[in-house]
Amino acid sequence: PDVKVEMDVLSLNIRKILISHGGSVPLASLVHCYNADFDPLDVEVADDGKHGVPLEHLLQAVKGIVVNTGATGIKKIEEATPENLGVKQSDLVGPPPALAGQLITFTREIVDMLKTIPGCKLAFYKFIPRYHHHFGKQCRVADYGYTKLKDLLESLPHVIQIIGEGAKTFITLAHKAQVRRFTNDLLKMLKNQPEKQFLLSSFSLVFEKTFFKPLSIYDYGVCHLTDILTDIPENTIFTEDVNEATKSDTMISVFRRDQTQEEVMRTRGFAKEVVELLRHSPDLSICFNKFIPAYHQHFGRQCRVGSYGMTKLIELFEAIPDTVEIREDGEERMVQLTKDKMIWVVGEQVECVVKTSRARCVALVELEE
User: Which of 59, 265, 281, 294 is most buried, judged by most C-beta within 10 A?
Assistant: First the structure.
């Protein structure tokens, strides 16, 4: 069933149930056992993905437990142990090299398709027609080295989770895939903000402005925003408690590691190199995508952003705002010298022209020539 519950409450209570039941509980009787011992779960009657999250999916996010299917086909919740977390041989070997590329593409297609559905949940029997309708092509299981759709989907546990059983079998995104997806969406939201930060209380508003649709947290496989924020990988975002007027709030911002003194010095040197490179470029600017090859050609060495304590080139440019700015030119991003640097470069070029003239002066009308 679809339920509404906080992850920390669910995690604590599931562990208590496993202890009292000898370490194993049939999934089918979990709701009954849970309601007998704790405050009843908020079970949603509407199974449309708009009012809650499948309980079996939430269990995947509970650390220290695992849902296993026995020989009889009955699903059980058990404490995670080295024995029931054993790695299959197929997981170690992976797909044949000839099929690896196709499987990666298929994986992306599934994510793209499921995220358009409320709750990212699709009935198993609807998968093939939905795929055909969404992509305008048939889903041929044999193309990926399988004979059954279920076997194919079960080979992608890092992306797909199959929940339910019988006629009520559903396909949804695995919790890890949802965390990756949420992290990417959050970074897009942050980078759209002038200061690359915003208050947690304004999350829904920023989401709607970024993606042009209202936020439904159930689409990310959780019932509360804070449940998935705590699963975001380290060194991705930075959160800080702040006091706004009479209420407390949380400021979310893009994580940035402090540069070492050596990296700060290198970044200053890089700023001078950027000026040197762009002063020879038309309009004192260059296409963002052409910067790396142009740098290599001009200086005879690679531009390694990691040497400056960064992970992306855009972050390196953002660290030298007095030297360059990024502007949009149609669909392309351009790296351009700031106004102050432009004046300095043009002034230096004019000085050079004047010094090389015989009369040590040049008429303004002749400068453009």
Answer: 59
